[in-house]
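Open question from group meeting: does this chain pack into something compact, or does most of it stay loose? Before anyone orders reagents, we agreed to write out a predicted structure and look at it together. Recording both the input and the output here so the notebook holds the full record.
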Amino acid sequence: MRARIGSLLQHQGALVMLLLVCLIGFARYEAFLTPENLLNILRQNSMLGLVALGMTFVILTGGIDLSVGALLAVAGVIAASLAGQGLIVALPAAVAAATILGLINGLVISKGRIQPFIVTLAMMIAARGLALAVTGEESVRITSSSDSFGWLGRGSIGFVPVPIVILLVAFAVGWLVLNHTRFGRNVLAVGDNDEAARLMGLNTDRVTILVYAISGALAGLAGVILASRLGTGQPVAGVGWELDAIAAVVIGGTLLTGGQGSALATLVGVLLLGVIFNLFNLEGQISPWWQLVLRGLILLFVVVVQNRLTKLR
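Structure tokens returned:
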């Protein structure tokens, strides 16, 4: 029995912790397991989940993308500017812009042989500056005539909010790509050993370019949903989201060195963070500043535990 428990913790540590946190929430708060609260947790974290999914692809190759928060803001501003023309125009334009910026990240990293940290840091600064300059540091209001655009962030399919549907579909596709396609195997191979993958004949540059383009596209999609939900495109949106996305990926068990992890593990990491923050809100007596302290301590604790479990594995 102890061996089985140890094996479960080593392979599904984040999931076990998520279940324990949910159990605490159920025992302490009557409102925790209500459909309204559970849907709210998923809806609140749907945009971060999309960003974290893109970050998963990047980290699995051994890279990092610090620009996702800024790309989210750029996409949100573009979407808000075009919202009057409807969702069919605003969504593709905004996602395409973020994808192109992500593509530039991948090209510079792969062709210039520059560290991803430096390249994406530079893109983060430049993209954020671009969003602020174009908008004059002001939010872009979405007109009331943009009903189809508003549906993306505030509408529902049946009783399920649209952002949750998009999140689940995105993670299902991400899981299929990573587990059942050649590209997914190549992503893991590059992260496991880039030089060995190159010697085996893999086009590692193409893999790198594509994962950063995917990261940009998903950040752009998250930015469009956020703009739709808030009713404005904010050039300061997404500040710090890159760190939250990295935290969710790492908490899920994906190694920062690459080569090991999965989309579903990241989804568990996103939900774990979301549930913890939801419990903070239900408690109601913890100030936002102490919540930040607790978030940092929880993240450190989970990463240390994951690291120990990985070594045991």
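Observations to bring back to the group:
The mean pLDDT is 90.
The domain at 32-312 is CATH 1.10.3470 (ABC transporter involved in vitamin B12 uptake, BtuC).
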